[in-house]
Amino acid sequence: MWKAVQRDLLRYTGQQILKVLRNQQSPIQLDLVVNARDRKHQVWERNSLSISLWSNKVLWEKIDYIHQNQVKAGLCKYSEDYCYSSASFYYSEDKRWDFLIHIEG
Known about the structure:
Structural class: mainly alpha
Low-confidence stretches: none
Radius of gyration: 16 Å
Mean pLDDT: 88
Strand content: 5-15%
Largest sheet: 2 strands, antiparallel
Distance between the termini: 23 Å
Strand order of the largest sheet: 1-2
Order of helices and strands: HHEEHH
Number of domains: 2
Number of helices: 4
Shape: globular
Oligomer: single chain
Helix content: 40-55%
């Protein structure tokens, strides 16, 4: 079941990303052209790695890893400063993303 959820999420978000790029006439969409047998564009990596979140420790390791990506990329000094991150929700209790639900209830 989780494979179907992942597939559907990647398909939907990929379509939405391409839609935004087309509407903005962004040159980035050209970087996504693959002209494969079953698709013209590819947003997400094929066969992306799935990691089982089998404990709270592993879950928090992955959340922290995700939150540090924008810091490592040089987009911000602190992960909670990056406007598209959930880090401010977890670390500063920022409520700007009203759809987020804390993993610990």
